[in-house]
Amino acid sequence: MSDLRRVILLFSHTLTLAQEQELREEWNVTSMVYLPAELQRLWSGVPPHLDSLASYLTPLWEWLEREANAGDVAVIQGEFGAVYLTVNKAIELGLVPLYATTRREVVEVSQPDGSVMQERVFSHVRFRVYGR
After folding, report:
1. What is the rounded distance in angstroms from the CA atom of residue 21 to the CA atom of residue 32?
2. Whole-prediction pTM value?
3. What is the pLDDT of residues 50-66, one digit of tens each?
C-alpha cells in the first residue's frame, strides 16, 4: 500500500496498540476516525427483532458516504448482518474493508467445588481484507 489514508472504525471497542501500529505501518493509515456517539450506539445496539437492517443502518451509511474517501480503510466488525451489509456498502464507496484476526488462548482452572473456570486471552494477529 503506498497512498496515505484514514481508517474509519466501525466496531464496538477501541483499537489496541498492536492494531494501531499495524494500521500505520502496513496500511499507511495517518488518522483514525471513530464513529460519532449516536452512530456508535446504533452500531453497538443492532436490534435482533428487525426483519431488515437497511433502514436501521441508513444513518450510518449516509455518514460513511460523507466522511470516507475512496481508498480509505474501514475496519468493520459487529453484528453479522450489519457487517455483511456495511462491507458491501464500503466496497461500493471504494473503501478497503478490513477485519481483525486474533489468536485465542484458553486457560482452564479447576475450582475447589469441581467446576472449571476458563480465561480467554485474545491477541491481535493481523488485519485481513474482506473477500480475499
Report:
1. 12
2. 0.84
3. 999 999 999 999 999 99
